[in-house]
Amino acid sequence: MTKVGVGAGTGAGATLVTAADAPAPAVRLPRRRGVELALIVLAVLLCVYGYCAVGLAKHGTVPPGAAGYGAGLGVLALLAHLAVRLRAPCADPLLLPIAVLLNGIGLVLIYRLDLETPGDRAAPTQLVWSTLGVALFIVVVAALRDHRVLQRYAYVCVVAALALLALPILFPAVNGARIWIRIAGFSIQPGEFAKVLLAVFFAAYLAANRTALAYAGRKIWRLRRLQLPTGRVLGPIVAIWLLSVGVLVLERDLGTSLLFFGLFVVMLYVATGRTGWIAVGLLLASLGAVAVGRLEPHVHSRVEDWLHPFASIEAGQGANQLAQSLFSFAAGGVLGTGLGLGHSVLIGFAAKSDFILATAGEELGLAGLSALFLLYGLLVERGYRAGLSLRDPFGRLLATGLASIVGLQVFVIAGGVTGLIPLTGMAMPFLAQGGSSVVTNWAIVALLIRVSDSARRPHPEPSDHNHDHHDNDDDLGRPG
Amino acid sequence: MTRYIRRAAVFCALLLVALLVNAARVQVVRSDVYDDNPANRRASIARYAQPRGDILVGGAPVTGSRDTGEQLRYERTYRDGPLYAPVTGFASQMYGTTLLEHTGDDVLSGADPLLSPFPLWNDVTHGRPAGGDVVTTLNRRAQRAAYEGLDGRKGAVAAVEPATGRVLALVSSPSYDPAVLSGNDAGAERAWARLNGDPDRPMLNRAVRQTYPPGSTFKVVTAAAALDAGVIDDLDAATYSPAPYRLPGTTTALTNEGDGCADAPLRDAFEWSCNTVFAKLGVDTGLARMTRTAQAFGFNDVAVRIPFAVAPSTFDTSLDKAQLALSSIGQYNTRATPLQMAMVAAAVADGGRVRTPYLVERTTRKGGATVATAGSRPTRQAMQPSTARRLRELMEDVVREGTGTNAAIPGAVVGGKTGTAQHGIGNAGIPYAWFVSWAQGERDMEPKVAVAVVVEDGSAHRGEITGGGMAAPIARAVMEAVLDS
């Protein structure tokens, strides 16, 4: 892994140095598809081992499904690998193995929880959704030859995103949130897909208008850094963002609105380099959080739960989900109880979805949980690295946005279930039960593969140098 | 833009660090707080996740475990539940544990750190060793003889081995089957309500948790105090005791059940259980000597544990002479558990030494390796050995030709004392029939067993309630069972 990192690092450095003016030197980056294949095989073997561990712990035998799940996951991973090998041969070799491993661990954990809830067979469904996700991955990798094509469809994306976000309003609420639509027995969470589309739109819009956003506009404060761009430039994007957040508030999908907000702020900051955006963003976020926390009963109870997770116990009503989740993590300790030997099922109905991490925490311990966090960290880091290595602003923003989606989402949900921040219902990327989520995350990884392939190509096609020039003006501290 | 992407990446890294630090806080630093929360069901799940160890009587378990397949998986079962209930108590998923199930819980449930092969082993493996066994001192045949002797009548039997203090039998009647409380369902709830509402109080352990006025059986203690104090030198010399005896400082006259008690020597008075003689003897011995002797036998000791707590038997320490007179014949505030009276008989049998009674011989790991043994127990000298020798004589006379002939066992030396304890306001209650005794087989070097039996029977005619008639046959059956084993 270190080797790969170093290779990518030198590659990034090389492209950056050459980016400004000169044609690319003949530095051939190792493609490392063999490494990717080896890591994928390792990931699949780890998951098969997980199935066997669950079966041995629960029934003393290797579970009959182990071969099926292992083969299913293996075939999916190999097809994905084949698609990458053929269509994105220079892509970052870590992205796909991490996705396969996370998805596989998720299947093991859901399968493990299925054993505690007879009659509920979520793992096979999740495997079907994973198959769909990998299929989408293959389609994206195969069909999308250049990520810059997406720039043209920015407005299609934003319309689709808003439509998807608005769709669940027509459907009845489930567990207090109006974020699902049910079609033919399947529930879909359109908001999940919307976030990728929105990231594409943000990237495209900001890439096109970032000069205007950064340099034009009125000075409203004396500090130059807090200079507001003209309404004409800022207006549409703020409107889109407000619209999506507004819809989400209506639907009580707080996690996703928080995610969109974070995504918007991060991308705006990366595009313009104005620290003021961060300040304004944080200010607005805290104002919004306080207001919503005070006024909205659903949010208010979440905040109360976060501040006093044991209040319901003291009131004699038993442990709530968050308390049960904390019990789960605590029961895991450093090394965990072992797969199949925990009692995270006590959490109740969301154990397989929002609280899947509690099962990981209890049965794999702090060691396993840290490993999972580091896997996510690595995935996000590879995304940012792809962004750094690219030279077109759209690609850079897209990679940054996609990586930020994963990073923020992991933080919001993991922080929620471990009591670090108030809980907001969200799916742990790849790990949690939820079809829309798995499919979306495969799409994100597909886009990251595509972007990283462009970033690591030895002979880059010429890209718009004007934007790069601005880049270099911004990056004063960078050598070269 | 590079710089800002890097900063965004650094921001994500900070979030990652926050997650890791917080996870360490929850899973390591604060884990004990969460583990110990009463709403956390993991402790009970772990507790019932494996079969409980067994309580052994005569090498065979009287308990068992049943796999229910539920969340609280293993449930307690009992063999001869009512017979051993006063020893085992119950282990209920809803109502906790009592008696040996309670005091031996750490071993039985596998939580005792002594059960693990190495120190801290369980902390590392997150496992819990298999439940250990509790080996009792009970004699299977004596226990059954006592239970069948009581035959469902209200009462209790306690038997100990005089030379050691091992408890050989502990029976309370009417009894109950602890198995009905084991589960986690409505059945257990109903049984709990029924047992608690039963006027016969089947869950009351009458052998150790109920005190009775000991009546005439207390005369053993009075005689010991008087002999030790030198108030009586010659067992066959006439005592200056009138019949009826006017209680000092009152106009109340104390009478006897039979005749011939006036000035009767101690031997005759003990044989025929003369109230007047012993009431006066107590007064003559004095409160200080009486108190000292009673406490040496174990009265007023609030800390007796066998290992579960035994209700303290009482001898009032601030009495006027009339009260002392009544107390000396086992009435007024004098109360004793059947186990206490068995200890009194055992002290006579064992040269005046009182052994601390105990019920658990040893605890073992599953498979039999010993974890802990009963060890040596403190011994008290309740009376001089010479006094004990003379009391043995008196008690043997009672069985040979006095009120306790029903307890005689051919081929064995048996000593006993009957008691018919009046109680209630104006002695209106149905009296309790007592019998305390000890027995030594022909080939035995020392007495093998001391027994106390109490029968509180509301169905018998008042006149038929005597220690010799109702309680002595039960005591004999228990003693025979021990001598034969």
Helix and strand arrangement:
The complex is a heterodimer of chains A (480) and B (485).
Chain A: H1 2-19, H2 33-59, H3 65-87, H4 95-116, H5 122-143, H6 149-152, H7 154-166, E1 181-183, E2 186-188, H8 190-215, E3 218-219, E4 227-228, H9 231-251, H10 254-272, H11 275-295, H12 297-307, H13 311-314, H14 321-332, H15 356-389, H16 393-417, H17 435-456, H18 465-474
Helix pairs in contact in A: 1-15, 2-3, 2-4, 3-4, 3-5, 4-5, 4-15, 4-17, 5-17, 7-8, 7-9, 8-9, 8-10, 8-16, 8-17, 9-10, 10-11, 10-16, 11-12, 14-15, 15-16, 15-17, 16-17
Chain B: H1 2-29, H2 31-35, H3 42-47, E1 55-57, E2 60-61, E3 63-67, E4 74-78, H4 81-88, E5 91-92, E6 96-97, H5 99-103, H6 105-109, H7 121-125, E7 133-136, H8 140-150, E8 155-160, E9 167-173, H9 186-197, H10 219-229, E10 245-246, E11 253-254, H11 266-272, H12 275-285, H13 287-297, H14 321-328, H15 338-349, E12 353-355, E13 360-364, E14 370-373, E15 379-381, H16 385-401, E16 412-421, E17 432-441, E18 449-455, H17 467-484
Parallel strand pairs in B: 1-7
Antiparallel strand pairs in B: 1-2, 3-4, 5-6, 7-13, 8-9, 8-18, 10-11, 12-15, 13-14, 16-17, 17-18
